């Protein structure tokens, strides 16, 4: 077993990552050792990255132990770069975390400066090139010890001797080429935020702030002629924790009042309520997803716009109950009854289907209710292929007074890999419309023909009005 | 004091929706059932902007109660507004899902149905109240089987007030529950009835034995038998021969009963 990471005190004692545990114990008998948990390290890094989004939305994880922030255009919000760095350090110290902060014009230079604790790029050792042991050794043997030594030399011979990647990396370290970072999340279309000098903790204050931000976002959306489909509110707690409230809407919207209702629903529906702790000192609202939304003239009549009202209600119920719990019917091309219709989340898309009507002089041939799984029943039929005479369902015997059938529905053999094979594959169903002597109407079927199987079973599939 | 005076000279305090509930049914807009006998008894129909309860006569009749409520909602004139069907997980598990092809065959438009499924009754009641208040629906149907303590005088009154204020037909399908005090304008008991058979002794059109158990407007309880006609989206009085012809079995059918009333 070897040491994976050491804290500053251990480093001061001369321990290094990579030292064997037995050696370390021999040197420092009362060494405190903890098991290596990369997942927890990663989670902590992710949590820190969430918190760092208060400085910039462009934030990148650099495991195992660093974060890269692109603060281009963000530093003036905190005064200047050094003040921003001071703020980061102060916040991390509050959590008992020590850090090394380096600023650079390119991500590579900042990364290397932080890693090797160097003030200037020319002081960096050649290991900062990250070119592999072989390259580093060769460079040292050639008398090149620091990046400064490399910078003054012509590049072409370097590329010929040590490879092109070394030169590219060198250019990035010397801040000649800026590759930009790849942020954790794609940058939102609209980002509005509000800072507080003193953290706020009352729910009403938080909601009022979100409302103000929603108004600002709505204005920006209007200028762009767009409406948001997804809204994310991030509540930055002063101790670094970030709570996320996300809302999806069925259609593009920029109605701040509607948004507030949805956010209230979301807060009500939270499994564990919002814990403001010592208060929030930054609240940000982002619109990561937006669509074109034209301006609409509100009708002069007082008639309620049912489409808009329905959409608003669907959004509201979907936020509260979950999108899958608010559904609409969609038709499908299939003659297998349970496959002919499906229910889809109402937020996804509006149904447009031509449903088959029945002729005026014939009653409904399909039940108004269908069981998800057909209910097994015991049936007495006059003769094997005949229609049912009586059946037992849920411990109740129904005597059949009227019956119509069979309506034969064969399986979808074209869905089978081997095509149509008589007597093989799925079973044919014979459906019967049945009315018992008390007037209840059922839809029964026998699964399988007598030449398909020995003893076909009967099921109750639906109920007629 | 703000006072409202109607043409008959009766004085109602004009508090928010308080007087509306107590005014005689005749002044409310009514939804006719379509069957002349039933509508005469109801003096025009049931309150269109009110809450109505439907109970099954026996445990196996909860489907009939649901079907009757749904068909009543289909009686509303066609508009853009849809029908919202709100159920709990338990009801859906016990009684299956609505089948759009069947709805369409009964004269409904499945594209206008919105299904809301909640985990428990409390959420269902809340979803129902929100649906009514949003005025997005023409009718809201809440299905809550069994004896639920949550459906009491208070919660039904809340629904009834919301329905009257928003002008939404609200139907409460109670299935196999035992009737308890509630604020519904009418309470019905529904039972499937033998239909008039089609040629060849095939089951006929949807027929129900309905009985009015309670009416807030003071109409005396009565029983009737109605059949649904999906072409006109209306009920009609079922002929008595429907019950008698249940005795007839086999291929012979009374020619008179073959014709639809």
Summarize the helices and strands and which ones pair or pack.
The complex is a heterodimer of chains A (465) and B (261).
Chain A: H1 8-12, H2 21-27, H3 38-52, E1 59-62, E2 66-69, H4 81-94, H5 107-116, H6 133-141, H7 147-151, H8 155-162, H9 164-173, E3 190-200, H10 203-224, E4 226-237, E5 242-253, H11 256-269, E6 280-292, H12 306-321, E7 326-331, E8 341-345, E9 369-381, E10 388-393, E11 396-409, E12 429-436, E13 441-447, E14 457-463
Antiparallel strand pairs in A: 1-2, 3-6, 4-5, 4-6, 7-8, 9-10, 9-14, 10-11, 11-12, 12-13, 13-14
Chain B: E1 3-5, E2 11-13, H1 18-22, E3 30-31, H2 36-41, E4 46-47, E5 51-56, H3 62-74, E6 82-88, H4 89-95, E7 97-98, H5 100-105, E8 113-118, H6 121-133, E9 137-143, H7 153-166, E10 169-175, E11 186-192, E12 207-215, E13 222-229, E14 234-237, H8 241-244, H9 255-258
Helix pairs in contact in B: 6-7
Report on the structure:
The complex is a heterodimer of chains A (465) and B (261). With 465 residues, chain A is α+β, with helices and mostly antiparallel strands. Chain A folds into 4 domains: 1-36, MutS, DNA mismatch repair protein, domain I (3-Layer(aba) Sandwich), CATH 3.40.1170; 45-173, no CATH class; 190-313, DNA polymerase, Y-family, little finger domain (Dna Ligase, domain 1, 2-Layer Sandwich); 369-463, no CATH class. Helices cover 29% and strands 26% of the residues of chain A. Chain A has 12 helices and 14 strands. In chain A, strand 12 and strand 13 (441-447) form a beta hairpin. The mean pLDDT of chain A is 87. In chain B, strands 8-6-9-10-5-11-12-13-14 form a 9-stranded mixed beta sheet, with helices on both faces. Chain B has a two-stranded antiparallel ribbon with strand order 1-2. In chain B, helix 6 (121-133) runs parallel beside helix 7. Chain B has 261 residues and is α/β, with parallel strands linked by helices. Chain B has a single domain (28-258), classed as 3-Layer(aba) Sandwich (Rossmann fold), CATH 3.40.50. Chains A and B meet through helix 12, strand 7, strand 9, strand 11 and strand 12 of A and helix 3, strand 7, helix 5, strand 8 and helix 6 of B. Strand 7 of chain A pairs antiparallel with strand 8 of chain B, so a sheet runs across the interface.
